[in-house]
C-alpha cells in the first residue's frame, strides 16, 4: 500500500475505496471531483500523513519547482537577509530553493551556472562576480529566467534589483557636511565591484556639489583579505591597519564614511589609540547597519541597505518570468535608509 513506508496516492485511494486518479484530482483541486468527496480525500490524506512527491509532480508538470540562488559570501549579513526573503517567497509559491556559493571565484560561478542548467531549475536569483556573462547567457538561452541582485552585468539584458549605493553614500556625506564637518574622508573596499564603485560615485558627487575638492588622500582603499583561499569581505583588521595611516591625517572637525560597519570597527580602534573622540573630534558613518552597530560606544551611524525588500522584489520578478511574463526588462534600485546615531550627532540609543 505504500513505497518504503511512504504514504502514496494509492494508499489514500485504497483506504477510501476510490481510484488513484480521483485522489490525484482531488488533491490538485480539480473541479471534476465533488466538494464533499474532495474534502473526504483531503482529510484522509492529512490523517495518513501524506506528503506530495515533488519529483513526481515535476515530471507531470514539466517544471522542477526549484529556484537556484547564487551568492558570493554566505557570512555577509546582507546576503543572509536576502536568502531568507527569497526562500520565504519560494516556499509560499511551492518551490524549493537551491543555494550555491561562489566566494567571488569566476570558475566556481561558471560551474554553478552549468549545474543550475543540469539540475533544470525553473529560474535563478544571482549575485555575479562581474567577470563575464557568457555562462549566464547560456542559461538564459536555455529558457531559464534570471534576476540579478546587488550587482549588474554589463551588456547582459536581464532583470535587476539592487541597492542604490550611490544615493546612500551621497546622503551620508551630505548629512556630515550639513552637521558641520570640515572635511569628509572615505574608507572603502579596494574591489572591482559596482557596489563599491557606486558608493565612491555618491561620495564624490556630494563633495562636488559643495565645491569641495577630492584630494589624493581623501579616499583610502582597504585591500581584500583571504583565509584558506577564500576572500574575506570587510576585514576589520585590514581596515584598522589602513585607518592608522588615515587617522594621522585627520584634523578636528573631520568625518569619515566607511564602506562597511566592519571597517568602522577598525577605524574606531585606530581613533581610540590616538585619543581622538567620536563624535567630538571626528564623526563616523558606516555601511550595512549590522546588528552590532547600535551597541558600539558611541553608537555607530550607518547606511542600511533594504536587503529583505530586495529579496522579495527579486523573487516576485522571477516568478512573473517563470509564469510567462514578457514585460520589458526591469532595473530597480531600492533606496537605503540612513540611520543617524551618536557617531554622527544623533542619539546614543541601542535601536
Textual characterization of the structure:
With 351 residues, the protein is α/β, with parallel strands linked by helices. The protein folds into 3 domains: 9-52, 434 Repressor (Amino-terminal Domain) (Orthogonal Bundle), CATH 1.10.260; 63-164 and 307-337, Response regulator (Rossmann fold), CATH 3.40.50.2300; 165-305, Rossmann fold. The chain has 12 helices and 16 strands. The protein has helices at 9-16, 20-27, 35-48, 54-61, 77-92, 106-119, 134-141, 165-178, 194-209, 236-247, 261-273, 307-322; strands at residues 2-3, 6-7, 66-71, 96-101, 123-126, 146-149, 159-163, 183-189, 219-222, 225-227, 230-232, 254-258, 282-287, 301-304, 331-334, 337-339. A 6-stranded parallel sheet has the order 4-3-5-6-7-15, sandwiched between helices. α5 links the parallel β3 and β4 (96-101). The mean pLDDT is 88.
Could you write a compact summary of the structure shown?
It is elongated and about 85 Å long. With 351 residues, it is of the alpha/beta class.
Describe the SSE topology.
Elements: E1 2-3, E2 6-7, H1 9-16, H2 20-27, H3 35-48, H4 54-61, E3 66-71, H5 77-92, E4 96-101, H6 106-119, E5 123-126, H7 134-141, E6 146-149, E7 159-163, H8 165-178, E8 183-189, H9 194-209, E9 219-222, E10 225-227, E11 230-232, H10 236-247, E12 254-258, H11 261-273, E13 282-287, E14 301-304, H12 307-322, E15 331-334, E16 337-339
Parallel strand pairs: 3-4, 3-5, 5-6, 6-7, 7-15, 8-9, 8-12, 12-13, 13-14
Antiparallel strand pairs: 1-2, 10-11, 14-16
Helix pairs in contact: 1-2, 1-3, 5-12, 6-7, 8-9, 10-11
